[in-house]
């Protein structure tokens, strides 16, 4: 964690360690009962295992970084596919491709010819709103929408459907549910939480685990239709300071239990067999290394007898640990390292050495392996057929079948929240002339959000969702049947002779996941307001507007609310956009099809900087539990305040690249005058290699491998081809900054650039002096170029076409990351203007 602290400040180190009171934590009686037969079988297995075999059970590598031969040689206890990882590195891998990999890994794990072990491995995946990594799967609304439905029985059915689609690909373990109780909506994972209130979280955790694993009370667990469940992330991830992903939670222990641990009360009661440790800290101590929480609280007080798995190299963030070595995590109570990238190999050998030299007690290894084997025996992995021979394996008809899609459509209907409906404009007659506009109208990727095929949910087209329905398509199907007319115009323009009776504007946040999604405030489209201008333009032409807002959190949209006749919070509805039309439109006999039933499970902010939660004494714009239906009269003011001051602090930094390019930028690999858009975690152009690497979190930085190429590098370019106004974010005394490491080789030249667009295009290049190039080492350091340097070359932040480019000459491997505009750079290497 030391690197992250250096990057984010020292405050976490100075936090006073929390006072602890174990009696706060109750014993949870799991509905998956302890079995003497299971315990005896596990003990017999453990007694025959070598130290190497035991440690292998505790290592979880990722499919991009191991081979079938690695599995045969080491016999890993499990493996995973991270977001954006696919069999054969093929986004379009078929169901049979997924099953083939599962079968090959399984057979290698039980092949005793090399490692002497016949213990079956297991595959874990993030199926967090359906089997979201696989093309053609049913994508359910993200958790924030499901929370608005407040229907545990529906949630259990969704879990059952998800389990079957996952089993169709040969996978038996799901990293879900996320049971974070979100208290600050600036957090980029807000949409992964069901509610700001622990009551919904607790009830949903119970329902989902029961749906995934089966009913322990009726001895119906781990049948052919079930998978292993994971409640995550233990504990407090939804309560970090300022909503900082992987940040510090400083609540007292009673609050930690009352607010942030109720999902574990529900999930452990239902019998969840694995718990994922959280990236966050509690009073400055990383959870991955917190023995009190992982062992005293979770295992001893709460009685959890399954295993604790780490998050993506989370152990490497503990002080004095690295991704390659972390005895502290095992001693604290972590049972399984999630070890993606090539870190798994040194971690395996280092852990063995640490047991041999006494740093890790053998008893702790035996306890961890006992827990892992207990889950495998309970789940029937020793007795079930191999992945390819299981009941649902390879059944491509299960993936996205009509029954599952109908369930998802029901969930969409129940998750929508009606915030405004002036003069009862909704429901709409499908016989009208309807205009649909906005970049979310016909965009299944946008309506599905992050964790959708790719990790961040980006770089997807509608064709990547076979069987799915965009919001426009859902409306069009019903309008066509009723004899109405509908026009799709993304920019809102229409033929004057075909003036619409009503416009449906679909807009909102672009997809994002952890890291990428953190925000400094909740103002929607601060500084740009293109969507507001589209709504106002339609209104100015006398056209009523129904606004459909796609988002992963409540946001400050007062101006958009004022300008709209009706406003609906859609959240992130997933692949079944037809569910939206079911509620918005009457049928062709003018009858209401489905009324609004969703209500807010998150308070809606009254200002861009308000962080309101139920019972905290604040007054949000819309309180927890708010939601109109067609019988309620809308009393919302049409003159909500549109003035705001988001404060100077949010102007200090404008992130351009962190984990991936921030909207609206796209990243390109460049060699000379040629460029290639980066759309995966590895790209090649004329011998220059780009790949993502882990620094603090999963794939948050990049590495360029140069082979004496002249002017090779990367460049951020506006996606839509129009200039961006960045002048609102930083003053003229600010800097363009990036972090860099010289991982190997040497550089003989480097230049940093910005480009603007307008009446006078500019291409500004600032050379890095040779003596400053020579200071680069394998240690990451921040480099800063004063924006005044670019301004002197006529660069204009108000007309930015490319806010960053780097051109390198040499034979080297260069690490780059954390590209931003910053108001202050106290420890950076300052590049002087030429």
Q: What is the arithmetic mean of pLDDT?
A: 93
Number of strands: 29
Beta-strand fraction estimate: 15-25%
Structural class: alpha/beta
The gyration radius over C-alpha positions equals 27 Å
Task: Report what the structure shows.
The protein is of the alpha/beta class. Helix content is 26%, strand content 21%. It is built from 23 helices and 29 strands. The strands form 6 sheets. Strands 18, 19, 20, 21, 22, 23, 24, 25, 26, 27, 28 and 29 form a 12-stranded mixed β-sheet that branches. It has a 6-stranded mixed β-sheet with strand order 12-17-16-15-13-14, sandwiched between helices. A 3-stranded parallel β-sheet has the order 2-3-4, with no helix packed on it. A hairpin with a 2-residue loop joins strand 8 and strand 9 (285-286). The longest helix has 17 residues, at 152-168. The two termini are 37 Å apart.
């Amino acid at each position: 964690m030391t690197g992250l602290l250096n990057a984010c400040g020292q405050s976490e180190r100075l936090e006073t360690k929390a006072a602890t009171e174990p009696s706060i934590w109750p014993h949870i009686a799991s509905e998956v009962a302890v079995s003497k037969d299971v315990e005896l079988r596990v003990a017999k297995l453990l007694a025959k295992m070598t130290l190497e075999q035991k440690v292998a059970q505790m290592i979880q590598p990722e499919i991009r970084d191991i081979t079938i031969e690695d599995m045969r040689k080491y016999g890993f206890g499990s493996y995973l596919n991270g977001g954006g990882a696919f069999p054969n590195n093929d986004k379009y891998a078929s169901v049979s491709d997924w099953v083939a990999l599962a079968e090959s890994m399984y057979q290698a794990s039980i092949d005793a010819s090399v490692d002497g072990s016949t213990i079956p491995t297991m595959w874990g995946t993030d199926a967090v709103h359906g089997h979201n990594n696989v093309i053609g799967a049913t994508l359910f609304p993200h958790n924030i929408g499901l929370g608005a439905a407040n229907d545990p029985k529906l949630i259990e059915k969704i879990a059952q459907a998800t389990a079957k689609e996952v089993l169709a690909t040969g996978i038996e373990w799901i990293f879900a549910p996320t049971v974070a109780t979100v208290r600050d909506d600036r957090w980029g994972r807000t949409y992964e939480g069901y509610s700001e209130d622990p009551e919904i979280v607790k009830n949903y955790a119970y329902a989902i685990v029961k749906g995934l694993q089966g009913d322990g009370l009726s001895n119906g667990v781990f049948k052919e239709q079930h998978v292993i469940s994971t409640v995550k992330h233990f504990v407090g991830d939804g309560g970090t300071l300022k909503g900082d992903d992987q940040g510090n939670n400083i609540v007292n222990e009673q609050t930690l239990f009352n607010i942030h641990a109720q999902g574990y009360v529900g999930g452990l009661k239902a019998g969840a067999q694995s718990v994922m440790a959280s990236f966050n800290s509690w009073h400055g101590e990383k959870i991955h290394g917190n023995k009190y929480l992982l062992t005293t609280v979770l295992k001893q007080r709460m009685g959890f007898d399954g295993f604790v798995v780490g998050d993506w190299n989370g152990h490497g963030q503990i002080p004095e640990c690295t991704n390659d070595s972390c005895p502290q995590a095992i001693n604290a109570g972590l049972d399984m390292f999630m070890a993606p990238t090539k870190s798994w190999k040194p971690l395996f050998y280092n852990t063995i050495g640490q047991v041999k030299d006494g740093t890790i007690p053998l008893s702790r290894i035996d306890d961890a392996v006992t827990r892992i084997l207990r889950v495998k025996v309970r789940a029937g992995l020793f007795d079930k057929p191999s992945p390819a021979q299981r009941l649902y394996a390879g059944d491509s008809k299960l993936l996205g079948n009509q029954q599952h899609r109908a369930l998802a459509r029901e969930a969409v209907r129940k998750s929508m929240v009606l915030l405004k409906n002036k003069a009862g404009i909704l429901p709409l007659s499908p016989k009208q002339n309807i205009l649909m506009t906005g970049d979310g109208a016909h965009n299944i990727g946008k309506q599905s959000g992050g964790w959708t095929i790719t990790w961040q949910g980006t770089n997807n087209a509608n064709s990547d969702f076979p069987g799915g329905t965009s919001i426009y398509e859902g409306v069009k199907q019903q309008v066509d049947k009723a004899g109405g007319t509908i026009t799709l115009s993304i920019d809102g323009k229409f033929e004057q002779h075909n003036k619409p009776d009503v416009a449906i504007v679909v807009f909102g946040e672009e997809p994002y996941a952890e890291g990428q999604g953190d925000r400094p405030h909740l103002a929607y489209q601060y500084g740009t307001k293109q969507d507001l201008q589209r709504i106002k333009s339609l209104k100015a032409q006398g056209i009523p507007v129904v606004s459909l807002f796609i988002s992963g959190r409540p946001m400050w949209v007062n101006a958009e609310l004022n300008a709209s006749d009706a406003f609906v919070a859609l959240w992130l509805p997933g692949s079944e956009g037809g569910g939206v039309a079911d509620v918005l439109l009457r049928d062709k006999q003018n009858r209401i099809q489905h009324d609004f039933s969703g209500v807010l499970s998150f308070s809606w902010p009254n200002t861009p900087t308000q962080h309101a939660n139920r019972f905290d004494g604040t007054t949000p714009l819309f309180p927890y539990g708010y939601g109109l239906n067609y019988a309620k009269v809308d009393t919302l003011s049409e003159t909500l305040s549109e003035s705001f001051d988001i404060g100077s602090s949010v102007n200090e930094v404008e992130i351009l690249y962190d984990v991936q390019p921030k909207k609206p930028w796209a990243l390109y690999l460049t060699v000379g005058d040629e460029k290639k858009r980066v759309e995966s975690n590895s790209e090649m152009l004329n011998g220059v290699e780009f790949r993502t690497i882990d620094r603090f979190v999963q794939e948050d930085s990049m590495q360029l491998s140069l082979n004496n190429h002249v002017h090779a590098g990367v460049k951020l370019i506006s996606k839509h081809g129009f200039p961006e106004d960045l002048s609102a974010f930083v003053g003229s005394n600010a800097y363009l900054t990036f972090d860099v490491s010289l991982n190997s080789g040497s550089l003989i030249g480097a230049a940093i650039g910005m480009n603007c667009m307008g009446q006078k295009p500019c291409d500004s290049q600032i050379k890095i002096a040779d003596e400053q190039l020579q200071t680069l080492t394998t240690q990451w350091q921040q480099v800063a170029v004063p924006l005044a340097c670019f301004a002197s070359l006529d660069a204009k932040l108000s007309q930015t076409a490319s806010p960053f480019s780097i051109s390198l000459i040499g034979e080297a491997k260069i690490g780059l990351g954390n590209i931003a505009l910053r108001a202050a750079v106290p420890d950076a290497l300052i590049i002087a203007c030429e």
